[in-house]
Specification:
By secondary structure, this protein is an alpha+beta fold. The protein has five helices and six strands. The chain has two domains: about 35 residues; about 100 residues.
């Protein structure tokens, strides 16, 4: 790992800690040349995952789509750290399936499951798009279902 201060190629790990239930490893490093200290984070990266959309089209998985949709649904209701943890847990479940293909509706189901336990308003916002609520009645039924 290169030092971000002097670009020296040799740094040593001083401390390692797991974060986000072991899905992220935070390492404290020190440059052997200038003795500057800095932190790095390692996390699982999902590679070559294909998402099958409702209309049958296939596209490569992109984390940015989840970030964007959750950003809209949560709309400042979750801080960035909580949002990062939510996204990491969704990706971890997707990755744990061990498949190279997943349906978009399965990703949506995983997100809904997580949101329901974190923030009900965000859950309803996401569900209204994911489940295509066409009327206020469907929205009210979903709200009733949550209350039970």
């Amino acid at each position: 790992m290169k030092c971000p201060y002097c670009d020296h190629k040799d740094t040593k790990v001083i401390d390692s800690r797991e974060m986000d239930e072991g899905r992220i490893v935070r390492r404290r490093r020190e440059c052997e040349k200038c003795q500057a200290r800095f932190s790095t984070k390692e996390k699982i990266e999902i590679l070559k995952l294909i998402v099958v959309k409702r209309d049958g089209q296939r596209e490569e998985y992109t984390k940015n789509k989840i970030i964007k949709s959750l950003g809209i649904a949560t709309n400042k209701r979750l801080d960035s750290d909580d949002l990062d943890i939510l996204i990491s847990s969704v990706e971890a479940e997707i990755f744990a399936k061990g498949k190279n293909m997943i349906e978009a509706k399965e990703i949506g189901r995983i997100i809904l499951e997580r949101l329901k336990s974190i923030d009900e308003v965000s859950y309803l916002r996401y569900a209204s798009v994911f489940k295509s609520f066409g009327s206020g009645r469907r929205f009210a039924k979903e709200l009733e279902r949550i209350d039970k």
